[in-house]
Amino acid sequence: MSSSSTPPPTGYYGRHIFFCLNERKGDEDSCSKHQAQAGFDRCKSRVREAGLAGPGKVRVNKAGCLDRCAGGPVAVVYPEAVWYTFVDADDIDEIVESHLKNGEVVERLLLAPDVGR
Ligand code: FES
C-alpha cells in the first residue's frame, strides 16, 4: 500500500496528474488500447466528487504519448514526478485518495523505473 508521504505542495495547482490518452492506429500498442480513457474519466469524476478539484488543489489533465508506452496505461503526478500504471477503477480511486488527497505514494501501482517506449 502507501508508505512515503510528502508535505502539501504549493503552486497554482497543488498536484497535477497527467494521463496518456494517446491512440496509435494499426497494430502498434498505445495507452488508449488499455482503458486509459476510462482511468482518466474515473479520476476526473472522483477528484471532483471529493472536492479536490481547482486552484490550490488538484488538476486532472489529458496528455499525449509520454514515451513510456510499454507500461501503459500510464499517468504521472507532479510536483512529485511519480509515475503510475493502473488497471481498474479501484486503482484510480486509490491514487486519488492516497496520493492526490493525502500525498502518500501508492507503491503497488508504481511504474518500474526502466519502462520506456
Ligand atoms: S502511448 Fe501512452 S505513453 Fe506512449
From TrEMBL:
CDD domains assigned to the protein according to its UniProt record, in alphabetical order: TRX_Fd_family
Domain of life: Bacteria
Annotated InterPro entries: Thioredoxin-like_sf
Protein name: (2Fe-2S) ferredoxin domain-containing protein
Upper taxonomic lineage: Bacteria, Pseudomonadati, Pseudomonadota, Betaproteobacteria, Burkholderiales
